[in-house]
């Protein structure tokens, strides 16, 4: 039987040291498991920049391409649709995209048409409310949801409405304008989505 | 800070007054014999590996595709495209083999020190059930990567059930859900492997530990400390030779855990296939229902039992005898508490006949492992010349090993039931060898 | 007595594990390929050989171009200009441009994907295979191989190695003649030593492709093992300290 006095200080020190070192080990072991949730090499490869020709998109038409699995709307806006944009400003939440929607587009698309070239809208087609894909309703005619409809997007999930530049109207659940992805023109009729425009940050 | 912890503890105690006593019963006031040796590490290590298998397994399911078309590709996806996926998979595959290493050593400990004897028969039976479920779990897990060895392993093992007279053929098709291992087979094995059997395993482990803590641990001397003198430095009414599991055995097990993990890490990072023993080369080829691998054999941990199938020839037009032999070899382990009725538990004080028999039993088991892995196909030509008749040698060696395996149980029954055993005096109290 | 009993058992187990470890590699004895996946220059040379001579028929469907660049210390431009002759993107896996149906027609069976060839067959086997092609007038494709007799594969590296022919063992008439050795009957662009090195590089590249994680895991592993040994030592001190109570 051990009758000598226990050295409590040494015992506490060793317990603490072992616990700390063991704890470091556990934390280190957890890291690979957390990292395994990062997008995999396959997801990253699938999320690589997408090149798209604009040649076959007629005025007034929309083309949807997938980039990082997201639907990207590419719209060839007609002069009438473009002309109607400034008139919507009073009805919009953030018409200049400088307020709550300041981070919803690259700097080079922070303008009245939210695009590099006025007629071409390139936009991630995800409603800023809860992530549904809004319907493209390009025609300017009275709609059940808006008698004064000037073309734009209507989200079937919770009835959010956006104009032809993806700018959100007032009085709907969605808070912000839809996202413009980074993109650039490789030549006059080819864009690359996922890469910032040359010369822009 | 201490106050916060104290008040949280009070809050919990008010609502679950049995929690703290339960903890004390199994940890700080579970008095284990103080003379545990090296062999007593394997219980806690088995628990550690079980946790490893569950955690890594959950993360593997996140990227694994349980379909015949996608399973093989998804394993390579895990190995290459998922960040650290290779580590998670190697932890799982190495863990599977080490699970059996640990379990076999744990079982041998139980046999050697008579831990299955009264009053611990229930602990032994529950442990054997764990072993049985673990074998099913391992087999189904082995099928999931859907390599060519997985496929043919599944085919052969399921076909064992086909030897059962009358219902065999229908049973095999029912198990596979097809006429060969296929999508349906993989899907159901996946479901069983990732949820059904792990639940059963966990339940059995809890029962195994509960049953153990009810009767208390055995020890290398096979002396029951509860029958010895009372009074130790922690409690005047508890066995004098008992020490609280926590902290004494928790810190001791921690040493075992550290060493075990170091060995496991060495395998995982430097030898993950262990030369084809833990991960077989032929499983790097996708499942192919038209081409059987050159050497079709189970992973090493099944081979001892599987070899028995090969060593028993068919008779009366059926191959069922080999399969009966295989299941019998496991069933006999279940019956060990009633086969061996010797009063002395530990090998330390048992008769010479028992020591010889146990040694032969271990060697026969290892011999069967060697036969089952086709290891003897390489060993014998090196030892006895290249021109020997391998089949004859294999069969002769394997049948002797099979006879010794079963002979152990027969001998043990005779030896103890007929009172042939001359035991040595068992000490009153546990001895320590420090 | 008991101590001796236990140590005997432990010794037997140790012996068994020892011999199994030594004899773990199966199959007939082949000369060592002597590959080293940490030899980046060798991997780069092997990759060039693969993309010049093999990718016409064989894919590496689990290996991405981007991964090759990362692991072999190459730039995106290196890989896309010098290795990738298809329109595959940088992040795409290496897929041969030969349609599987054509391959089936030309060779009777589709050329296998080589992503896991070394995992399945071993580096020594691949190395020996690449060195064992010989001219065989009886074969429909004109080539045969001593490691994989009647292989459906023509010998794409012949202009490097040259042509080997088989020297038969003298046997009784009527016996199936056995091949004794292969001799170089027509030299190729490389000397035999250069050709061995080239095939070693190619084997090395395929070994890397079989398990790209192998580059990383040894690197991480050394620290993990050292850490765990350190932890074990600490735990041992702690155990010693607590067990002063028990004697």
TrEMBL record, chain A:
It catalyses: a quinol + 2 Fe(III)-[cytochrome c](out) = a quinone + 2 Fe(II)-[cytochrome c](out) + 2 H(+)(out). GO terms for molecular function: 2 iron, 2 sulfur cluster binding; metal ion binding; oxidoreductase activity; quinol-cytochrome-c reductase activity. Residues 88-110 are annotated as: Disordered. Residues 95-110 have a biased composition (Polar residues). Residues 88-192 form the Rieske domain. The chain crosses the membrane at residues 13-34. Binds 1 [2Fe-2S] cluster per subunit. Keywords: 2Fe-2S, Cell membrane, Disulfide bond, Electron transport, Iron, Iron-sulfur, Membrane, Metal-binding, Oxidoreductase, Translocase, Transmembrane, Transmembrane helix, Transport. It is found in: Cell membrane. It holds the Pfam family Rieske. The keyword Iron-sulfur applies. GO terms for cellular component: plasma membrane. It is a single-pass membrane protein. Its cofactor is [2Fe-2S] cluster. Its EC number is 7.1.1.8. It comes from the Bacteria. Component of the ubiquinol-cytochrome c reductase complex (complex III or cytochrome b-c1 complex), which is a respiratory chain that generates an electrochemical potential coupled to ATP synthesis. PANTHER family: CYTOCHROME B-C1 COMPLEX SUBUNIT RIESKE, MITOCHONDRIAL. Belongs to the Rieske iron-sulfur protein family. The Rieske protein is a high potential 2Fe-2S protein. The main subunits of complex b-c1 are: cytochrome b, cytochrome c1 and the Rieske protein. This is Ubiquinol-cytochrome c reductase iron-sulfur subunit. The gene is petA.
UniProtKB/TrEMBL annotation, chain B:
It is a multi-pass membrane protein. Pfam families: Cytochrom_B_C, Cytochrome_B. This is Cytochrome b. PROSITE patterns: CYTB_CTER, CYTB_NTER. GO terms for biological process: respiratory electron transport chain. The main subunits of complex b-c1 are: cytochrome b, cytochrome c1 and the Rieske protein. SUPFAM superfamilies: a domain/subunit of cytochrome bc1 complex (Ubiquinol-cytochrome c reductase), Transmembrane di-heme cytochromes. Its cofactor is heme b; heme.
Automatic annotation (TrEMBL), chain C:
InterPro entries: Cyt_c-like_dom, Cyt_c-like_dom_sf, Cyt_c1. Residues 41-213 form the Cytochrome c domain. Its cofactor is heme c. The lineage of its organism: Bacteria, Pseudomonadati, Pseudomonadota, Gammaproteobacteria, Lysobacterales. Keywords: Heme, Iron, Membrane, Metal-binding, Signal, Transmembrane, Transmembrane helix. GO terms for molecular function: electron transfer activity; heme binding; metal ion binding. Heme c binds at residues 54, 57-58. GO terms for cellular component: membrane. Pfam families: Cytochrom_C1. It comes from Dyella dinghuensis. Residues 1-24 form the signal peptide. Binds 1 heme c group covalently per subunit. This is Cytochrome c1.
């Amino acid at each position: 039987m051990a009758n000598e006095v226990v050295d409590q200080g040494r015992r506490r020190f060793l317990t603490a040291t072992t616990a700390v070192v063991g704890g470091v080990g556990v934390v280190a072991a957890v890291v690979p498991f957390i990292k395994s949730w990062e997008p995999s090499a396959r997801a990253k490869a699938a999320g690589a920049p997408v090149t798209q020709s604009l040649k076959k998109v007629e005025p007034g038409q929309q083309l949807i391409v997938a980039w990082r699995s997201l639907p990207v709307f590419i719209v060839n806006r007609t002069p009438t649709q473009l002309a109607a944009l400034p008139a919507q400003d009073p009805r919009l939440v953030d018409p200049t995209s400088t307020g709550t929607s300041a981070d919803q587009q690259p700097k080079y698309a922070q303008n009245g048409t939210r695009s590099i070239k006025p007629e071409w809208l390139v936009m991630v087609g995800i409603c800023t409310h809860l992530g549904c894909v809004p319907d493209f309703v390009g025609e300017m005619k009275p709609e059940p949801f808006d008698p004064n409809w000037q073309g734009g997007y209507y989200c079937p999930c919770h009835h959010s409405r956006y104009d032809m530049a993806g700018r959100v109207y007032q009085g709907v659940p969605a808070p912000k304008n839809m996202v413009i992805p980074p993109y650039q023109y490789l030549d006059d009729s080819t864009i690359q989505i996922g890469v910032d425009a040359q010369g822009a940050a | 800070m201490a106050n916060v912890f104290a008040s949280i503890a009070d809050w919990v105690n008010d609502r679950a007054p049995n929690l703290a006593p339960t903890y004390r019963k199994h940890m700080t006031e579970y008095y284990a014999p103080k003379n545990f040796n090296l062999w007593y590490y394997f219980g806690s290590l088995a628990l550690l590996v079980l946790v490893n298998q569950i955690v890594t397994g959950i993360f593997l399911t996140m990227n694994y595709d349980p379909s015949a078309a996608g399973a093989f590709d998804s394993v390579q996806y895990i190995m290459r495209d998922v960040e650290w996926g290779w580590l998670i998979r190697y932890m799982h595959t190495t863990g599977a083999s080490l699970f059996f290493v640990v379990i076999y050593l744990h079982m041998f400990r139980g046999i050697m020190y008579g831990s299955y004897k009264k009053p611990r028969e229930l602990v032994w039976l529950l442990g054997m059930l764990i072993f049985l479920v673990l074998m099913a779990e391992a087999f189904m897990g082995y099928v999931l990567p859907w390599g060519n060895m997985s496929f043919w392993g599944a085919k052969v093992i399921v076909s064992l059930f086909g030897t059962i007279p009358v219902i065999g053929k229908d049973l095999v098709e029912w198990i596979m859900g097809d006429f060969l291992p296929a999508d349906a087979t993989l899907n159901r094995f996946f479901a069983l492997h990732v949820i059904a059997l792990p639940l059963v395993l966990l339940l059995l482990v809890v029962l195994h530990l509960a049953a153990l803590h009810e009767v208390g641990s055995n020890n290398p001397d096979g002396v029951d400390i509860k029958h010895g003198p009372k009074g130790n430095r922690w409690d005047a009414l508890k066995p004098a030779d008992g020490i609280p599991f926590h902290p004494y055995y928790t810190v001791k097990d921690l040493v075992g855990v550290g060493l075990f993990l170091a060995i496991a890490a060495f395998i995982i990072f430097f030898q993950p296939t262990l030369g084809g023993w833990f991960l077989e080369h032929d499983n790097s080829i996708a499942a192919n229902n038209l081409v059987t691998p050159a050497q079709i054999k189970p992973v090493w941990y099944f081979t001892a039992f599987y070899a028995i199938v090969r060593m028993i020839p068919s008779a009366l037009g059926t191959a069922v005898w080999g399969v009966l032999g295989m299941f019998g070899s496991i069933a006999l382990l279940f019956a060990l508490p009633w086969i061996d009725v010797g009063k002395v538990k530990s090998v330390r004080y048992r008769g010479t006949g028992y020591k010889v028999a146990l040694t032969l039993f271990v060697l026969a088991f290892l011999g069967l492992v060697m036969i089952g892995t086709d290891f003897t196909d390489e060993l014998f030509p090196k030892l006895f010349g290249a021109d020997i008749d391998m089949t004859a040698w294999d069969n002769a060696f394997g049948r002797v090993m099979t006879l010794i395996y079963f002979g152990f149980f027969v001998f043990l029954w005779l030896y103890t039931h007929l009172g042939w055993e001359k035991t040595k005096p068992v000490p009153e109290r546990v001895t320590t060898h420090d | 007595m008991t101590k001796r009993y236990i140590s005997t058992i432990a010794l037997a187990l140790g012996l068994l594990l020892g011999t199994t470890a030594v004899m773990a590699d199966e199959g007939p004895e082949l000369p060592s390929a002597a590959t080293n996946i940490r030899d980046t220059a060798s991997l780069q040379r092997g990759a060039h050989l693969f993309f010049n001579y093999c990718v016409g028929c064989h894919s590496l469907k689990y290996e991405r171009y981007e991964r090759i660049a990362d692991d072999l210390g190459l730039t995106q431009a290196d890989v896309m200009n010098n290795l990738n002759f298809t329109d595959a993107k940088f992040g795409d896996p290496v897929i041969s441009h030969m349609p599987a149906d054509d391959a089936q027609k030309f060779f009777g069976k589709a050329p296998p994907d080589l992503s896991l060839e070394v995992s399945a067959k071993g580096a020594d086997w691949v190395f020996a295979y690449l060195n064992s092609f010989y001219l065989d007038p009886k074969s429909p494709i004109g080539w045969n191989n001593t490691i994989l007799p009647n292989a459906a594969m023509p010998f794409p590296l012949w202009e490097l190695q040259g042509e080997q022919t088989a020297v038969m063992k003298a046997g009784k008439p009527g016996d199936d003649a056995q091949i004794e050795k292969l001799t170089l009957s027509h030299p190729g662009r490389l000397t035999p030593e250069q050709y061995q090195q080239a095939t070693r590089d190619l084997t090395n590249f395929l070994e890397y492709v079989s398990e790209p994680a192998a580059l990383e895991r040894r690197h991480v592993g050394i620290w993990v093992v050292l850490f765990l040994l350190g932890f074990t030592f600490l735990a041992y001190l702690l155990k010693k300290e607590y067990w002063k109570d028990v004697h």
